[in-house]
Amino acid sequence: MQTKPLFIQNANEVITLQGTAKPRIGKEMEQLSIVKNASVWLEDGVIQAVGTDEELKQQYKDRLDEAEIIDAAGKIVTPGFVDPHTHLVYAGSRENEFNMRLQGASYMDIMNAGGGIHATTRATRKATEEQLYQESERRLHRFLLHGVTTIEAKSGYGLSFEHEVKQLEVAKQLNESHVIDIVSTFMGAHAIPAEYKENPDEFVDLVIDDMIPKVAKRQLAEFNDVFCEHGVFTPEQSKKILEAGKKYDLLPKIHADEIEPYGGAETAAEVGAISADHLLKVSDEGLKQMAAAGVIGVLLPGTAFFLMAEFANGRKMIDAGVPVALSTDCNPGSSPTISLPFIMNLGCLKMGMTPAEVLTATTINAAHAIKRGDEIGSIEKGKKADIVIHDVPNYMQLQYHYGINHTHTVIKNGKIVVQGGQRL
């Protein structure tokens, strides 16, 4: 086990993201606070110093012999990536639906025919905890190789207390055993189960009166999420569910305005949600209210890409003063990917964002979207030593070379866990 201090030296660029302690908005999202010809000193799992090579070699001149040296010549250093919206724990696969979509079926067509979320619910209910653990662990290994050091994981494929808890328990076990930190979200309101199709309000009451109190008592989640969409949960139902969660200290999140304008963003602002996610069809009024309330817009371009849908307008949201984060939305139906670097490519190529903005959106703003902005998301003294070294000479090449994983070294809590693109 590595116990020595780590000294990263000779980096072309260290993208520190130092600056405001709040989520970045507008022009702030371009401000990367880059140090060139730079070094970082890590010790006891914490970032101790960042500066030029000359500065840090002078500062630590009496301790260089005791440190493990990482030569980052020709490379760049960033904070560990944060993925703030995933459905990590599930069973099964839905490649048959991919073929159906290629032949013209819509997401809601498939869902209403018993596919979509319902198909994964059936597979997840059937799966044992051990199966869910093994399948989810494999996904986590791949996230790590792509530079992700912290991830949010939602339930939502159980749609009953027994099976929602099974997903959350697996996420808890993975958080304890895997190097990636996992932040859990309860999403019992992901869909109306088939058995409640004729009486959705009864299921809403079940989520509010039974599931939320029990999940909170077991301390299995920090957040409470709901799919606010026509044919799923109405804005009124969504508000009831999110307000109920707040009584048990479950912070609200919301899947909002993904398929049609439906008032999801406005609901997010009204309940004080930490984030509203998707937002492909968000209204101008919804953006205005989100900006005023400080709700983070978590954008999921992989979903639009895979569903062959119109992309969310990231440029418009940033210009409207909404703090924007990016995520894979890793799930088996609408975004079966673990590649946050590719999501960043899509942010630039399909959503009008700049290379600097997508870095902000996958580090410090993503950290704020899961209430971790004071611990991770930037390279500054006192924060967790979650660091990625990328095999490119400057940060813009991360997006210029699209579809490529440039991750060379991953450091988690001050320990090297990936080196030369291989998991240790």
The biggest beta sheet is recorded as: 9 strands, mixed
Strand segment count: 17
pLDDT below 50 for ≥5 consecutive residues: which ranges?
Answer: none
Considering DSSP H and I runs of 4 or more, what fraction of the residues is helical? 25-40%
- How many separate helices? 16
List the helices and strands and how they pair.
Elements: E1 6-15, E2 34-43, E3 46-52, H1 53-59, E4 68-71, E5 76-79, E6 81-83, H2 95-102, H3 107-112, H4 117-126, H5 129-145, E7 148-154, H6 161-177, E8 181-189, H7 200-217, E9 223-228, H8 235-246, E10 251-256, H9 264-271, E11 275-278, H10 284-293, E12 296-299, H11 301-307, H12 314-319, E13 324-326, H13 340-351, H14 355-361, H15 364-368, E14 387-390, H16 397-400, E15 407-412, E16 415-419, E17 422-423
Parallel strand pairs: 1-4, 1-5, 6-7, 7-8, 8-9, 9-10, 10-11, 11-12, 12-13
Antiparallel strand pairs: 1-2, 2-3, 5-14, 14-15, 15-16, 16-17
Describe this structure in words.
The chain is α/β, with parallel strands linked by helices and 424 residues long. It contains 16 helices and 17 strands. The protein has helices at residues 53-59, 95-102, 107-112, 117-126, 129-145, 161-177, 200-217, 235-246, 264-271, 284-293, 301-307, 314-319, 340-351, 355-361, 364-368, 397-400, and strands at residues 6-15, 34-43, 46-52, 68-71, 76-79, 81-83, 148-154, 181-189, 223-228, 251-256, 275-278, 296-299, 324-326, 387-390, 407-412, 415-419, 422-423. Strands 1, 2, 3, 4, 5, 14, 15, 16 and 17 form a nine-stranded mixed beta sheet that branches. An eight-stranded parallel beta sheet has the order 6-7-8-9-10-11-12-13. Strand 10 (251-256), helix 9 (264-271) and strand 11 (275-278) form a beta-alpha-beta unit. The N and C termini lie close together (11 Å). The model has no long low-confidence stretch (mean pLDDT 97).
